[in-house]
Sequence to fold (434 residues):
Amino acid sequence: MSNPVIEAIMTTRAIRRFTAEPVTNEEISTCLAAAQQAPSGGNVQPQQYLVLTDPEAKTAVAHWYARAYDRYERSLPEATEFRDESARASWERTRNASRHLADHLADTPAIVLFLQPIIPWAPADAEGPMDIGRLDASVYPAVQNFCLAARSLGIGTAVTTVIRIYTAEVLAALGVPEGRFEIAALVPMGRPRGSFGVAPRKPSTKVTHFNQWGNRP
Amino acid sequence: MSNPVIEAIMTTRAIRRFTAEPVTNEEISTCLAAAQQAPSGGNVQPQQYLVLTDPEAKTAVAHWYARAYDRYERSLPEATEFRDESARASWERTRNASRHLADHLADTPAIVLFLQPIIPWAPADAEGPMDIGRLDASVYPAVQNFCLAARSLGIGTAVTTVIRIYTAEVLAALGVPEGRFEIAALVPMGRPRGSFGVAPRKPSTKVTHFNQWGNRP
Fold:
């Protein structure tokens, strides 16, 4: 917690329950400008943003989100073993909050869809094709910038992807040209019910290696 | 520039030239803790970090990075048309800086590889398979957190992916178990020669739609 940027990063956790207070267009614009400033391969800045604040648009998307979440939820394994009681409690809190979001997405003050163009791109040379990655590397940093900027304004967000199950239906409902985009993320935003805080994560030292695999810090 | 978090986000640009001053283990740890705090699907936190500060390890990776960048550079189209002179100058600056990084990666104070496990995962139910996305959504937010945390400490970074062309060779050189991971990003870090600042991006308003595709802010 040594500086305000680190503190914002450490306390940006998924928020899935929101108050009814709207977010302003100015707040949304600030977060989108932050998203847009993210790095992208070759500085192509491939993403498009669909901002939903009208009840009709939110309801249309919420319909498909609920269906997607139902299917996703049923596919999850029953968790029966936990490291300890606090791990179980954390898991249950997340499940309940995710369920709440699925049931109430239409009431979220704003929803932002991050769209990523479908571009087949695999450069090749005499030595063969070159896998230098997908556009994901150029879109998810923007999503994270968005969430951190929102946090700094007191606005909660969550990065969700289950809506991808109904990409075609959602994009059609919003008038997006067919076959040109996929949904990288759906991010609800609003003032948090509950509070920001440090979400449970394993220590980074457990997954850090120095100079050779297995050399622990 | 309304608050320190937004300011850090807006002024985190790719830094590809570094002074010889080392980065400390404490600084690296702070950035990794920030990375680790990023959101991930189901909170699985799938990434591993390989931190290279030893000359031998950096030289091994720099060898493959230079080869990868050579191939990537040759595959780029010759840019002959630009919107204006400043667009051309920006393009040339980036090309030159990227070339510089490829030639001097071994001299970078630290290099962090973000590894992403190769996990085939496609949940399905009675209605069919569910494409809810890949692990990328769970790794690149961590990369961005890392870069922003570094920025707040005065440390420059750049998100690069060309090393993926030689994933197998690089991971073998660093003792990573074969076939289990891919490289999501290679991030050099050090004190910037030159300065932080707002990188050129198109305005987010050009790629934002309100409630229906094509409704401009």
